[in-house]
Design goal:
Largest interface: A-B, 49 and 41 residues
Strand order of the largest sheet of chain B: 1-2
Shape of chain A: globular
Order of helices and strands of chain B: HHEEH
Oligomer: heterodimer
Structural class of chain A: mainly alpha
Distance between the termini of chain A: 66 Å
Helix content of chain A: over 70%
Helix content of chain B: over 70%
Number of strands of chain A: 0
Order of helices and strands of chain A: HHHHHHHHHHHHHHHHHHHHHH
CATH architecture of chain A: Up-down Bundle
Number of domains of chain B: 1
Number of strands of chain B: 2
Largest sheet of chain A: none
Shape of chain B: elongated
Chain lengths: 529, 64
């Protein structure tokens, strides 16, 4: 590294005495990035020739193996927020980042125990298939599509804005160019290659991300005699014992609980994750894929913890904040320190690939809600031909892709970190209660399902607007009407309660009797119907 | 699982000093428990998948 040249070109770095090449065009990063784009477009070309029906487009022909699906689930789930975000959070606050890592992981056993198998046996392409199985199609699907699109759009905004700023910071190209590149690549994957291409993009990305993180963590631990405790001790020595204990991030107990709820149950309501369970041949493979995904994601979160403390000790919290106040550059800075500019380039390209793969998965699940739920089942009342379904799915993909680019440009420069938390809150309060109640409770009715999904979606949106997250942090008001930073603690129980209450008030005997059919199919799979 | 995680979250929320206690130099109880929550979820999914894919599926097949 050359300490002097770094700070010159970039005004952002001028004030801080940080020796870094972040923000300068990086040949290695470009090379890795083009290699990734070329490989994934090659995969897309291969997948496009195999994508002939909606079953291929939405569910990869249901031929994905459990191991492949486990990797792809991990790829869909490990967003830039978890790679750069958690490493950054740990490097600047210490222990507090662990709340996110554990919260994001414990959602997976919930998915396995409650959701994976019924979802695979009852549905076709979307989670609304399951909720609408024995209820009235049109109202349930409209409400479910609302919940899906709200979750997907918010997640998409967070990823797009993150992509734009990260790429600008790492490659030195403009924010808008970065957004358009991400949008174009993601539209190409989904539009032509559907779920087959999306699955393989996720697999490639998951391997790159896990490989990169393992290498980086290995280099960190090498400096501490391969002993994590020595690393933590060094952090405590430099920044005090408080970095090893819960700190200011969760100053209020109820905030910690509310965030925990959203992270844990939100996973079981994320449309792009749920959709992956339709790509495997049967329930047994669905279970196995959760096991692989949990292992991969768990080890990844353990690694990010090492990366976070490594960056804290080796790079220094102050230096990380000086480059980017949110701490998001902790992992790239660490890579540069340990492996020089080429390694920085590699990690930068991995971060880009990470975002690209996640937005592709999101777009596909949003397109499924628009075309499969709204167009095929609500507008056309299930009378659309196979060709029309595929065409509508592609139009929806294109529309969502363009929407994603526009949203990304609209929200330029905004603090959108809270939107991932909000997306999880909506998933936990709208999608998750409706799924669980429709699978496990005979008395659930159409009116109850619609009420719980609408209450969850609207409630979460309204409360987050009234919360300190928006009122204090963004609008700079002194106080906020609603005290919690994440609304899940209120909206998730409210959604369950309202769904149950309305179902009890407006009973539907014929919907209750259809529950026997649901139970039979849920346990025995589709061959017995 | 829910109990495991919320036990951890409740400790974070209400008993920070306990989590700050150090077991060995550098390793606080909080960090150890966090790592154990991750490893614990992994073991639980493994046990469930083993049980479901052998025992439970065989039972189901007999009911068909």
């Amino acid at each position: 590294m050359t300490p002097s040249s770094a700070a010159i070109g970039s005004p952002l770095l001028a004030a801080a005495q940080v020796a870094t090449r972040i923000g300068e065009p990086n040949r290695v990063a470009m090379a890795f990035f083009f290699l990734f784009i070329a490989t994934t477009l090659g995969i897309t070309w291969w997948a496009a020739r195999r994508t002939k029906t909606t079953e291929h487009f939405y569910a990869a022909g249901r031929t994905v193996s459990p191991g492949q699906n486990g990797l792809a689930l991990a790829g869909d789930y490990m967003s830039a927020a978890s790679f750069l975000g958690i490493a950054g959070l740990v490097s600047t606050t210490g222990f507090d980042g662990l709340i996110y890592s554990t919260g994001w992981l414990v959602g997976w056993p919930v998915v396995l125990f409650l959701i994976a198998e019924p979802l695979r046996n009852l549905g076709k392409y979307t989670f609304a298939d399951v909720v609408a199985f024995r209820l009235r199609q049109a109202p349930v699907r409209m409400a479910a599509a609302g919940g899906t699109l709200a979750t997907v759009s918010l997640y998409l905004i967070a990823q797009m804005v993150g992509a734009g700023s990260l790429i600008r910071l790492m490659f030195g190209i403009s924010y808008e160019t970065a957004i358009v590149i991400v949008g174009a690549a993601m539209i190409a994957y989904v539009l032509f290659g559907g779920m087959i291409a999306t699955t393989w993009v996720q697999i490639v990305k998951a391997i790159l991300l896990l490989g990169g993180a393992t290498l980086l963590a290995g280099m960190v631990l090498w400096r501490f005699q391969l002993n994590p405790a020595a690393l933590f001790a060094a952090a405590a020595e430099r920044y005090g014992d408080s970095v090893l204990a819960p700190g200011r991030l969760v100053s209020k107990p109820l905030d910690a609980i509310s965030l925990g709820l959203a992270l844990m149950f939100g996973t079981a309501g994320l449309p792009h994750i749920l959709m992956r369970f339709y790509t495997v041949p049967d329930a047994s493979s669905a279970r196995k894929s959760v096991f692989y995904a949990t292992g991969l994601i768990g080890s990844f979160y353990l690694l990010t913890f090492v990366l976070g403390f490594g960056a804290m000790v080796l790079v220094g919290s102050e230096a990380i904040r000086a480059v980017e106040p949110g701490g998001n550059m902790a992992a790239p800075l660490l890579a540069e320190l340990l492996g020089g500019t080429p390694f920085l380039g590699f990690i930068a390209a991995v971060a880009f690939a990470t975002i690209l793969a996640v937005v592709a998965g999101l777009t596909l699940s949003g397109a499924a809600a628009l075309s499969h739920d709204l167009w095929v089942h609500v507008v056309r009342k299930d009378h659309a031909t196979a060709g029309e379904q595929l065409k509508v799915a592609r139009v929806a993909t294109l529309a969502l892709g363009i929407l994603g680019v526009l949203l990304g440009i609209t929200f330029k420069g905004q603090n959108v970190a809270f939107m991932v938390g909000l997306a999880f809150a909506i998933a936990a309060s709208a999608n998750f209660p409706a799924l669980v109640l429709s699978i496990f409770w005979r008395g659930y009715t159409t009116a109850g399902a619609v009420t719980s999904m609408l209450a969850g979606t609207v409630g979460a949106l309204v409360l987050i607007y009234l919360s300190p997250t928006v009122q204090v942090d963004i609008l700079k008001n002194a106080t906020a009407w609603f005290p919690l930073r994440n609304p899940a603690l209120v909206t998730m129980p409210a959604s369950f309660l309202l769904g149950i209450l309305v179902s009890l008030l407006v009973r539907k005997p014929e919907e209750a009797s259809a529950f026997d059919r649901l139970e039979r199919r849920m346990h025995l799979g589709e061959e017995i119907t | 699982m829910i109990a495991l995680y919320f036990g951890f979250v409740l400790l974070i929320a209400y008993d920070k000093p306990l989590l700050a206690r150090k077991l060995t130099p550098g390793l606080s109880l909080g960090i150890l428990l966090g790592a154990l929550v991750i490893v614990g979820s992994w073991i639980m999914t493994w046990v469930y998948v083993r049980w479901a894919n052998s025992h439970y599926d065989t039972e189901l097949r007999r009911h068909r």
